[in-house]
Design brief:
Elements (H helix, E strand, L loop, with lengths): L5 E6 L15 H14 L6 E6 L11 E4 L3 E3 L7 H10 L11 H19 L3
Parallel strand pairs: 1-2
Antiparallel strand pairs: 1-3, 3-4
Length: about 120
């Protein structure tokens, strides 16, 4: 069996009603449409779309990460899925319309790392 070309992780972490979350922003629909699109194009044996937990970027969801490259997307709704599949998964080019800004993403991870480190320090 050949290894998968891509693994596409879609956040499906739910939060309380009224709180921002990928689910409240339509990530379950995004995942369903993505799976359907892969099957429709006959790509479902080369790549998989799967649910995952929270990326801590709820206000920007639905959030999606494509591996093995580790390319992050935000606000990837069901309507954008066909173009996303065509650009990123078929042609191997980032789907610019929903691509996370690298500088902002790097800053986000740095702040999250500092926050976690401060929580781990003994008092």
């Amino acid at each position: 069996m050949e290894p998968l070309k891509y693994r596409v992780f879609v956040c499906t972490a739910a939060k309380e009603e009224g709180q921002s979350s990928c689910v409240n922003r339509g990530s379950k629909e995004t995942l369903a449409v993505l799976k359907e699109e892969l099957i429709r194009r006959g790509l479902n044996f080369e790549m998989k779309a799967m649910m995952c937990g929270c990326f801590d970027r709820c206000e920007r969801g639905p959030n999606v990460v494509v591996y093995p490259e580790g390319i992050w997307y935000e606000g990837l709704n069901a309507k954008a899925v066909p173009e996303f599949v065509d650009c990123q998964l078929v042609k191997g080019k980032p789907y610019i319309a929903k691509l996370c800004d690298e500088v902002e993403l790097k800053d986000f991870f740095e702040k999250r790392k500092m926050r976690k480190m401060s929580l781990q320090r003994p008092q």
